[in-house]
Amino acid sequence: MKGRKPREVIQFIVDTQGFEWIVFEEFLAEYTEVLSRSKLKLTDEIKEEWFEIINTVTAIIDVDVEIDFPKGQKDAKFIACALASKANFLITGDRDFTEAQTSMDTTIISVSLFKKLVCDLRE
C-alpha cells in the first residue's frame, strides 16, 4: 500500500466510467487489519487516508458463492467476491491467487501490471 501505484490505480478506478472497487463487508475488516500491520510502516495519517478512501469509494455486495480454495479459506472469499460480481479483474499482490486463475474468467493481476496494462494505456 506504500508508494504511488496503489493510490494511482484506485484513483483510476474511481475516476473511470465502467470501473468499480467491489467488496463485501468482511473485506473492510481485513483491509483495516492489513493496513495496520507494522511491517508496512504506514504513518497514522496515511492509514487514515486509506481508511477514508476505502469507506468512501467501495461498492459493497452480498456474496452467496462458496469456494473451496486449497491455498486457504481466507483467500477464498476474494475469489468468491470476484465470481459473484463477475469482476473483470482481481487486483492483488498475493501470489497465492495465481493458482485460481485457471478456474475463473476474472483476470488476476498485480497492482503494477494493472497500472501498466490498463491505467497507463487509457491515458
UniProtKB/TrEMBL annotation:
Signal peptide (UniProt feature, chain positions): none
Coiled coil: none
Domain annotation PIN: ranges: 14-96
InterPro entries: PIN-like_dom_sf, PIN_dom, PIN_toxin-like
Lineage top rank: taxon: Bacteria
Designated name of the protein: Putative toxin-antitoxin system toxin component, PIN family
Entries under NCBIfam families matching the protein: putative toxin-antitoxin system toxin component, PIN family
A Pfam family: PIN_3
